[in-house]
Structures
1.
Amino acid sequence: MAPPPPPCRPSSLQPLLGPPECHDPPPPQAGPTAAHPFTDLMVANFDDGDGNLPRKGQTENNSATFLSTGNPCLDSFFHVVPDTPPESLTQRLESAWAHDPLTALKLVCNLRGVRGTGESDKEGFHAAARWLFKNHPRTLACNVEAFVGFGYFTDLPEILYRLLESPDIRARQKREWQQQKGTQKKKLRLRSFPSELRNKKRIAMARKLLERYKRDGEFRFLHDAVSGHFAHCLTADLEFLKSGEINKISLAAKWCPSLDSSFDLMTPLCQSIAKRVFPRDLFSEYEGLEEAHYAYRVRDRLRKDALVPLRRILELPEVYMSAGRWGDIPYNRVASVAMKLHKDKFQRHDGERFWSYLADVKSGKPTIAAGALLPHEIVASLDEPNGGEVAELQRERVVEDLPKAGKLENCIAVCDVSASLSGAPMEVSGKVITFSEFPQLHAIQGEGLRSKTEFIRTMDWGRNTDFQGVFDRILEVATAGKLRAEEMVRKVFVFSDMEFDQASTNPWETDDEAMTRKFGERGYGAAVPEFVFWNLRDSRSTPVAAKQAGVALVSGFSKNLMKMFLDDEGDVSLLAIMEAAISGEEYRDLAVVN
């Protein structure tokens, strides 16, 4: 670990110049040869007569539901999922911040957490970061070090870039890329794009940053905080390299923008980082140099004396790939996301050795990384060319790692496989109950991930989501088998979009209220299972209010959340689960500044 950086404060370094073209005029050259469907169904002014409970409304399928838990932070924790529109996310974040700023900040970081710390919702995190800059810029800037602990160093230049562009810049770029994918248009466009026009675009991008840097004090403060954190980590890593403490080296060198890379052109970070790593007052060779020459010299030195040696010692696959040294790639050190992105290249350029590595993993010799991948991402890669073998091995790694954190006992999953939800259901102890007009209990069949996934996809869903029917079925099985109360299933995971069908004769009895009543009528009032409602789609339906005991509300696609329920002997409650999700060591360094 690097030593702690200095307190968050504005930089006292010389002004940021950008590339030479921005401050030195170039020599003259010759001319070139949709409204949410829930809104219409919501009963906006319904009053249930209990001032202690939030308002009720209806699901998209006309079942009674709460419209809120009554706690804005819980609402944000439960309702924000990867497909939540930025406008809805920021509205919830604003309400949560007004309720409890520190908890709201922790929930922002929980969105990003990729290594057991959160939901791995990159787009949600960046939408929240944009809101933070607009409303609490010093809090954003002074927590950049903590943000890296939840995601990656590359999140920092990404925040700067998105602030310079429109909020939907990445979505637009993705659409453009998908339109060009599989065609020759991109290659032809790049080939015919004159170098002088590319250079003009580069200069325009740099000038845009420099103008914002000079004009906007808060943006300048954030830019300096980002470059300062990179410089602090790189300086510490060079000392670790010199002392031989290789295991302490961070990934700052991996994610630091390379000279003249897209991030460097868009944010001129390399210059700012280099001037902090090699300041004038500590290196006599820069004494007397004019500012532009000094900036040029230290940028090149950053590459040669810092990034190159640190990246070499990190054994990054990208370094070997760019050098064409495919046969030297240490596959056991390739991160899970990099494996997902580059496996086709490994097979194409180093097929024999790569397949030998996969065979060794299958036999239990080396391991394959899977920590940063979400379950549905692994399932999706089954359909990619030659992706099945890697997906199977990564799934096995996830299954092996999860029990190390504890066990799930006496639990079952209820999976929504209706048309309103396109997601990857999760299995618990190999059994699952489907939502449908006639809910069925299935033992998941198949040896590998592909066969299990195909089995789940064929399960009948009956074109509806009858939540109460599920528990009618559980009670039928329990009473027919004369189960004692202590033998009843203890915990039920409900994976759904929460848009349940109307089933109660009382139009304003929620599904949770009806379920509690039915268990009591069958003699199991003291054995009502604990429920974990796991929200998988953007929705306003809220199964229970904040004070409801024996219920947890979580959301998103991350396997990390499952760890909170392993070997859990305590009582489940909404607040306790949310607080557990944001109570890790990484969250303790977060601070609200403004």
2.
Amino acid sequence: MKFQPRCTECLLSRVAYEAALVLDDPDRIEGIRRTAAEVLSAGEGEGLAAPVLASRVHRCAYRLIGSDDPYLALKRQNNSDALAAATVIAPRLSSFHDNVMAAVLGNTFDYGVQAHQVTDDFLSFFFREFEKGLAIDDTDRILRLCRRVVYITDNCGEIVFDRLLILFLKAMGAEVTLAVRGAPILNDATLEDARALGLDLIVDHLTTTTRGEAELGINPLLLPDDLACTLDRCTLVIAKGMANYESLTDICDFPPVAHLMAVKCETIAEMTGVPRGSVVALLRE
């Protein structure tokens, strides 16, 4: 998906949000927002995928903020909150569909998205939405492809519920490669987060989506060799969240992809054909 003008305000509001996580200076935060807008404007004519341009803007913002990981405290709190919730949720998950649903609802741990609010009562939210089900439910078709899986994560907090789905996949005999972000960006999970949850001991291989760059989504120019080789032989990619969806819809000659995500904006709602606020398990073959 190419960057669209309607995405501008959401991106810049997220820049202001992450700056405010570190800084207590409204004038400086506004200055960072203005500089980010200039970087965005300069890149809009390049025809870049939305995650590529957004990553460029966030890297600039991080330099101006003076932090490599402004979401660090929030990420740790998200994982702690999700672990507590998972102790209640996990015993109630019995099927592949149940575990997919939990992983999708975990995708709501996403901060600074203009039209999306993270709930203060995740357990109540979870069970309410769990009963509603998926707006797009391709879980039966997805399950048939779960032999050699590349699982691309998104946010912290969410990764706790990814762990439950991965445990289910391993129990059914699937080979799982887990790919997290190569460096901190937004509240996305990194190697540190995956290892803290013991995921390195569960999956067959743990890797990153870049060679150390802070980049959203999947950028083919930045893939490490081990991930590229694994993608060549996998039977399914499970891709969490909207940034992975935005990038993978532009990539040809890719394995089947199961997009597990909450639809948090009108652009993605229009692309998927479901209302904003829906949750989906969408298979693209």
3.
Amino acid sequence: MMKRTPLLSLGIAGLGAAALPTSARAQAQAPRTEQDRPNVIVILADDLGFGDISCNGSRTIATPNIDRIAAEGIRFTNAHTTSSTSTPARFGLLTGIYPWRVPGTGIAPGDAGMIIRPGTPTLASTLRDAGYTTGAVGKWHLGLGESGRQDWNGHITPGLEEIGFDYSFIMAATGDRVPCVYIENQRVYNYDPEAPISVSYKENFPGEPTGRDNPELLRLHPSHGHDMSIVNGISRIGYMKGGGKALWKDEEIADVITGKAVEFIEKNRERPFFLYFGTNDIHVPRVPHKRFAGRSGMGARGDAILSFDWSVGRIARVLDSLGIADRTILIVTSDNGPVVDDGYRDRAVELLGDHRPWHIYRGGKYSAFEAGTRVPFIVRWDDGARAGTVSGALVSQIDLFATLARRCGARIPEAGAPDSRPALAVLRGETEQGRSWVVEQNANGTLSILSGGWKYIAPSRGAAYLKATNTELGNAPEPQLYDLREDAGERHNVAAEHPDVVELLRSLLDEVKHAGGTARR
């Protein structure tokens, strides 16, 4: 017999209904008039851990702007991304599809083709169809054009316009991957015709220096990998040549993309808009602006957290100055959990001190353990609902699509967002009856499922440990079961003690995997 509260022994159909109580479904009504339609801003940090912000209990770093949003909104302590790595997490958020359902959604190189294919309903296309102006600014990491065949010197297609974004100003992949240029509306920003761009993820271009062969040219050295083309004195993943005046300066990335986000807000203040703002902070290489350099006392990683907090504050202040904060939903979250050494010798490990980016949880970025997918998640509603509330409801980023569509009066296409469920009452803090279960994946594709306070990690042949980043990946050949109510740090595998729970969760996970979708609307 189980000693803990038993799980809901229901299949997908039953759990689908349980995801939102009847009273909550009745409250989750679409807006009645044009004036009722709120603006929506999703600020998606990169590699920000649950313990990296002061409102989640950190005493080693202050994030006053994020704390302000939490005080004016609802802070969730049991919120999860769909994956512990970037590309699949972003895919899940924007499409409402579990990324493990779709081949090719793993960590994307800088020359990856468009991963969200044209014709796939997205949160952006759904809101655009409902009359919203839509924009994407900052880190993208979901591919552009056709794989390895992009025209970096012309119009890159397919791109973000084809999946619902009216405006885009993006980094194609990540700060540590080439091409190191911004792309505005599918053309390289500030393009330099005297320095045409070539990109390869197979071989270097003749005569181009690399971090491996020319370490004397580096101002920031790699700790592992990251030894290919050199841009701005930093070696990257992948090879490129050219770029000239279009090449970004790492110290200015936060200022540039936050500025573009502000411009989008200001331009569209008079009409409903949706802004997806993916920051570069706190991903490597961490080269914060001189305003933040050295301020945290924790090296470049801590300084990058301060930079991210500044970006959040800049967005909040422009909403205040334009008088539209009270008709804007503002969401602050992260794509996955934290990593300290992710490839550069920036002294993040040596200067970490007592700071715990993973809070009380085990693992981190790449991992199946909780720190990989339990992320900061704060929602400030346009009407100020439940300001200052802290919710322990089980929620997932996969449900942002359906929830925001419902709040904004948008109709999701019949085949759209098959795994996203409207959770408006939950995300408004009106009930703590969140999801009955959440599925997530690690960097190896190992799946986990959480339900009723239990967490089951499916058996995997993947490596247990990633030495380069000092991360426990959560892979094991045998089933793992953790009682998160008693063992939030996942130190005691109790699968042998609770075979009935293991079988229930294994069966549920199998049912989810083989279903075409799990949404119930």
